[in-house]
Amino acid sequence: MTATDPDASMLAELRKHVPPSVSTVQAAFEELPLTATYDLVFAAAAMHWTEPFHRWARVSALLNANGVFASFGGQLHLDDLAVDEAVRTVSSQFVPDDGDPCPDGKPADGSTRWPGTELSRSDQFADVRQITIERRVVMSDHEYIGHLSTISAYLQLSAPVRKQVLARILHVLPAQVKLNGDLTLHLARVMGGPIVRARGQPPTCRWT
Predict the structure, then answer these.
(1) Domain presence at residue 89
(2) Residue 4 is inside which H or E element, if any?
(3) What integer pLDDT is reported at residue 205 of this predicted model?
(4) Does 181 score more than 60 pLDDT?
(5) Residue 127, in any domain of the structure
(6) pLDDT score at 104
(7) SS3 105
(8) Structural domain count, the chain
């Protein structure tokens, strides 16, 4: 397995949780060398940050023949409508929309979500599938504030403003918050022939 990230500190954190056999590459997706191919390329809530024009050509170039691309992501949404409304009332003047961007403009409740929409249109992938994985989470109020502090809409605020809005949100939260965090998984198989692999050779994976 090869893991990639442009941030050295993120890779250092990863090293604490994976075996030594996992190699790492510090690079943005657009900078990854296309000198090796893998049976699986896996991305977690990251592809919307990549440069659109060569996005799928680069994924395809990283895959062995008949290899699989997998992408999943899903936001955590407050399950209690009253709590959600209270938070939106506080945050909306600072953060009009804290949702993940949808690169193709499809509504979040559409039958096929991004990147499945782009993968289905690509002539480099086939057998595109979309799967919903149910996830329910319970956090303390402070844990939820910690989660919000990692979301790009809040990270783009100046430090003093971010501190102010998160303090206001904390004030309207109950001690525990229930969250709907359903994940959307997309799978797609690159066009090509069957994989040829020596007997006993494990599948290879790039995680970005």
Answers:
(1) yes
(2) strand 2-5
(3) 61
(4) yes
(5) yes
(6) 66
(7) coil
(8) 1
